[in-house]
Design brief:
281 residues, mainly alpha, globular
Amino acid sequence: MYWAVPVFLMITGALLLNPEKDISYKKCFLYARRVLLALVLFGTIFALFMMVGSHQSINIGKALLDVFEGKSFAHLWYLYVLIGIYLTLPVFKGFINSAPRETIEILLLVLFVFNFIASMAKAAGHATGFSVPITWPVFYLILGYYCRKFDTVLFKYRYLILMVSALVLGIIAYQNPILDNLWLGYNSPVVALMAMSIFIIFMNIDVKQSTLLWRIDRLCFCVYLIHPLFIQATYRVLKITPMKFGMTWIGTIILFVIFVICSFIFSYVASLIKPLRKYIL
């Protein structure tokens, strides 16, 4: 599932770096403001929940400080990254839209070597001292634009790349399930290949206009924000985990379905609140 975040970044790049889409600093600021408001609101709620769960006294100031320091629920890390992407997007867009294909390919190659291949050296116990000041989220952002704009040989072998990368990740996870994120993280070269192939596959699928699909899409951001609260409440408060069902994989599936349903119900109710829908969701 590690391909999901990279693919979302690639979608962001494919859409917002599109030369036909006008992206001003004002518009990017509004994008960033919406994400920041979501981060502050939900991050504070989650930080307060953690205080209650650890039997601490309620402290709004401490909760806000935790949000600032990134100490709220772990999944919110992506919002911090997204704010940075939005605020720098016009700069990247100006460069990418004017750069020739060869320049973009060289940039992607450099970023891949220093952000992905370097991680393999670190996994082998030989961390390199070389680095570039641009990290892997920007790589995926530019890669999404590149895959949407240019035809490459990768399009032809997208299914083969997906199968091979999935097989390699499966073998790595099976052989050593207790891994840090070097091989199974977002900066893993294998995960990058899997994400790229999945993006290309879905990009070439013709999807008909669907009102229902669009309505579901509108709820997904809130689902992302809120779903860990149901997980934490179930595990910490109700003391129900997948192990309670005897067979862990059955319990995981059951709880997954419950969490998805609860998250979408909450998101739908939240979307009915006008200030939330207008400024955050």
